[in-house]
User: Which sequence fits this backbone?
């Protein structure tokens, strides 16, 4: 078990290094720089700024300096928010994004799991077709369309819920969480349905029925665990997708999360901010993939034994 | 009065292609304290009939067309699901065919065992656990205290079936339905499980329905035998009646399918084609642990044109020997000479040329055929790959192969799932023969098949081995099958050869205790010999 985790973490190091390297050079290849603006800046001022942020050094020296700082846990100063470090900005924005992601995940698991299980119990009937058709729409509809539609319906016509902000007015967290979670709810519904159908056709389900167990016990005690393993394995990639998706949702609903800093940083050529956020997110994604793999393996006794955890 | 009295039971399946009468008006009864065997090949409706009694046939597509099934005076077919559920698992319990898939892999066996008891009776968890431990000991699980909290994958197939039996008996049912309970097991384990079922039935004086495709299996235990074919009962009788004077031709055919004879000795000079010397194949278990010695210092020859039988139970290393010869697993040490060339020393292109001369037929024709390739594609691939036929002549080659293995030419564009198990095994044999091999390893090629089909495939293999002049290594756990086909037999135990000889020598004068045990495990020996 520990060995498996150790190996996976070691494997993650080169992956993250590649991410850093590619991002580092890509943002510098992109035309424009952090201190270009429409207003002409005196040459001396610009040179002084570049010197302050080591931008006058050769590219590879900049790269080496960045890696050195990174090794000490320092993501560097932000170019566009003078006086604030990238670490501070991430620390400020991430809790909001994490909260949004968590709620969205709960929405996705709750709605998706329920829909998937319901659909699997009566395949090829209305109970299957209706949630699955909705799921198909959910997958097809991007959040930048769904968000405004929900705002229009619940915020403006019905006037039930606030349409922007985060933690300012009661209920303002509901619409963003649903907007972000909906697409994943749809994926989870489909995965859950397929997993459950697979398990429900197994011989041991017939054994459970032959014992005279009522239907709900057959479903909950005998089927759910095996049927939801694919869903758990999907949670890692889903989390990555949620983080990426949250940038759009944060913009729609004016939420002061990491995503907005990230998008702003890209527009502003805020090199260190772009890099810092990318590194931070890639580390998170690696960790969450690992976590969901461990969880899925833990749910399967056969794999659990291989981990030596039994 | 009979414990269970089934009258004119009819069950059909309604599909888009029409209505299929799976069970077509059958009547039989089961007495307390007696074993009724229902015999028939796959698709004869024997399982559907029993499942429909307990409401375990999915409806739709299933539909009960008529009949009665009186169990203790109540008609099972008329009961509501909630009432039926009270009988299921309490008064009537079931054991299924494959203990690998019939136990829930996500629950400990203890939990699964206690479940019927906790659900049907007012007992505490502690009482249920105590009862589960008692039953595990009774069905022959060693040290139940320490194994009750294990998961199914930690048990062997035979042990799992014992757990299944304990689970069925935990509520002390009056009727036990056993659906092919030994078909997925080795002969030796099968003999143990049969003995166990008969003992438990005798001790509890309950009624048993024993479903099987193999008459020989029930020869020692059944009181009444019901023979089914295509949804109907063709013959019912007591054990002696069926085995001594079967009246219906189908019953006679089933009896004839039980392999009993020995292959006549083969004339001609002995010239070894395969020469295995001191073969060892060990599997590493990771650092610091003893390797598994699957094959340990085994030596034998196979003469040109000879069929060598390799017999042993699961884990005896018999399949590994076959795979080692074909270089499908890495050999630890020793030599395998094919026509004088040491195969263990070959690499790359040379190995590929040699591989063309050797082929393998696998046990499971379901798993070993690509489901997305038609018969034509499956058979044409090796013909083209090894340059045996050209693009122009390949169609003729495929049809010739189909003729040889007894498949109708009309099936050429069909996919594996459209065939029965026996037909699929014919395709697999055709594929193996496509490269005109000199040597074939057949790894349990008939153990997944019904007896009647098994007999047909064995005949086909015998005929083909003559026509193609094949040398064959025939691997099986079933001595009776091997005796029917093989010129010589090696008995394997824990990776080592314990005895060898011709079929008659082994059957009449077995020297080793293990061989004798294998012989005693052959089902229905007493009645057949």
Assistant:
């Amino acid at each position: 078990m520990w060995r498996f985790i150790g190996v996976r973490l070691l494997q993650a190091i080169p992956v993250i290094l590649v991410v850093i390297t590619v991002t580092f050079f890509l943002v510098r290849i992109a035309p424009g720089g952090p201190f270009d603006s429409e207003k002409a800046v005196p040459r001396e001022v610009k040179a002084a700024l570049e010197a302050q942020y080591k931008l006058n050094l050769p590219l590879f020296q900049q790269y080496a300096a960045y890696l050195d700082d990174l090794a000490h846990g320092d993501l560097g100063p932000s170019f566009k928010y003078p006086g604030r470090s990238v670490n501070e900005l991430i620390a400020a924005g991430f809790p909001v994004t994490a909260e949004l992601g968590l709620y969205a995940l709960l929405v996705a698991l709750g709605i998706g799991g329920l829909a998937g299980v319901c659909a699997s119990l009566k395949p090829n009937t209305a109970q299957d077709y209706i949630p699955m058709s909705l799921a198909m729409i959910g997958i097809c509809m991007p959040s930048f369309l769904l968000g405004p539609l929900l705002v229009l319906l619940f915020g403006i016509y019905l006037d039930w819920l606030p349409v922007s902000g985060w933690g300012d007015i009661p209920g303002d967290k509901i619409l963003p969480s649903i907007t972000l979670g909906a697409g994943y709810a749809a994926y989870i519904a489909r995965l859950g349905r397929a997993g459950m159908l697979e398990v429900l056709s197994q011989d041991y389900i017939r054994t459970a029925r032959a014992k005279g167990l009522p239907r709900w016990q057959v479903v909950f005690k005998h089927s759910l665990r095996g049927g939801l393993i694919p869903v758990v394995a999907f949670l890692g990639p889903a989390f990555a997708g949620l983080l990426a998706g949250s940038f759009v949702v944060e913009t729609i609903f004016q939420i002061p999360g990491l995503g907005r800093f990230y998008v702003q940083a890209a527009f502003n050529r805020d090199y260190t901010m772009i890099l810092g956020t990318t590194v931070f997110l890639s580390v998170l994604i690696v960790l969450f993939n690992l976590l969901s793999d461990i969880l899925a393996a833990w749910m399967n006794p056969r794999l659990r034994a291989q981990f030596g955890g039994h | 009065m009979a414990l269970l009295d089934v009258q004119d039971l009819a069950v059909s399946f309604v599909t888009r292609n029409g209505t299929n009468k799976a069970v077509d008006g059958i009547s039989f009864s089961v007495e307390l304290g007696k074993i009724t065997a229902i015999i028939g090949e796959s698709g004869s409706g024997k399982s559907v009939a029993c499942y429909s009694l307990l409401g375990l046939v999915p409806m739709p597509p299933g539909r009960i067309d008529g009949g009665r099934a009186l169990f203790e005076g109540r008609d099972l077919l008329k009961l509501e699901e909630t009432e039926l559920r009270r009988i299921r698992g309490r008064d009537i319990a079931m054991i299924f065919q494959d203990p690998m898939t019939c136990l829930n892999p996500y629950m400990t066996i203890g939990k699964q065992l206690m479940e019927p008891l906790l659900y049907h009776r007012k007992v505490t968890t502690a009482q249920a656990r105590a009862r589960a431990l008692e039953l595990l000991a009774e069905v022959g699980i060693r040290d139940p205290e320490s194994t009750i909290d294990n998961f199914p994958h930690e048990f062997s197939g035979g042990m799992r079936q014992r757990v299944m039996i304990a689970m069925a008996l935990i509520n002390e049912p009056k009727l036990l339905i056993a659906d092919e309970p030994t078909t997925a097991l080795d002969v030796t384990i099968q003999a143990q499980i049969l003995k166990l079922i008969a003992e438990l039935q005798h001790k509890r004086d309950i009624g048993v329905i024993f479903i099987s495709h193999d008459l020989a299996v029930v020869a020692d235990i059944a009181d009444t035998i019901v023979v089914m074919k295509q949804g109907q009962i063709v013959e019912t009788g007591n054990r002696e009646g069926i085995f001594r004077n079967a009246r219906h031709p189908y019953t006679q055919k089933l009896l004839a399918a039980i392999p009993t004879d020995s292959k006549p000795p083969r004339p001609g000079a002995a010239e070894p084609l395969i020469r295995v010397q001191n073969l060892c194949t060990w599997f590493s278990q990771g650092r610091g642990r003893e390797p598994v010695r699957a094959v340990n210092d085994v030596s034998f020859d196979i003469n040109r044109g000879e069929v060598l039988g390799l017999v042993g139970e699961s884990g005896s290393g018999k399949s590994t020997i076959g795979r080692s010869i074909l270089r499908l697993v890495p050999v630890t040490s020793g030599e395998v000479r094919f026509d004088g060339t040491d195969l263990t020393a070959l690499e790359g292109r040379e190995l590929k040329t040699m591989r063309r001369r050797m082929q393998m037929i696998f046990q499971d024709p379901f798993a070993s055929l690509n489901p997305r390739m038609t018969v034509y594609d499956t058979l044409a691939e090796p013909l083209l790959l090894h340059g045996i036929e050209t693009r122009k002549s390949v169609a003729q080659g495929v049809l010739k192969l189909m003729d040889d293995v007894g498949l109708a030419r009309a099936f050429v564009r069909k996919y594996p799932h459209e065939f029965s198990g026996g037909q699929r095994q014919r395709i697999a044999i055709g594929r193996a023969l496509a490269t005109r091999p000199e040597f074939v390893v057949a790894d349990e090629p008939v153990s997944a098949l019904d007896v009647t089909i098994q007999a047909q495939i064995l005949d086909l293999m015998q005929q083909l081995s003559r026509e193609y002049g094949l040398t064959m290594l025939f691997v099986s756990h079933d001595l009776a099958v091997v005796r029917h086909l093989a010129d010589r037999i090696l008995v394997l135990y824990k990776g080592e050869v314990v005895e060898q000889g011709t079929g008659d020598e082994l059957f009449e004068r077995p020297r080793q205790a293990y061989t004798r045990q294998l012989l005693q495990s052959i089902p229905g020996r007493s009645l057949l010999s």
Q: What stands out?
A: The two ends of chain A are 10 Å apart (CA to CA). Chain A has a mean pLDDT of 85. Chain A touches chain B at residues 202-204, 206-214, 217, 221-222, 225-226, 299-302, 305 (CB under 8 Å).
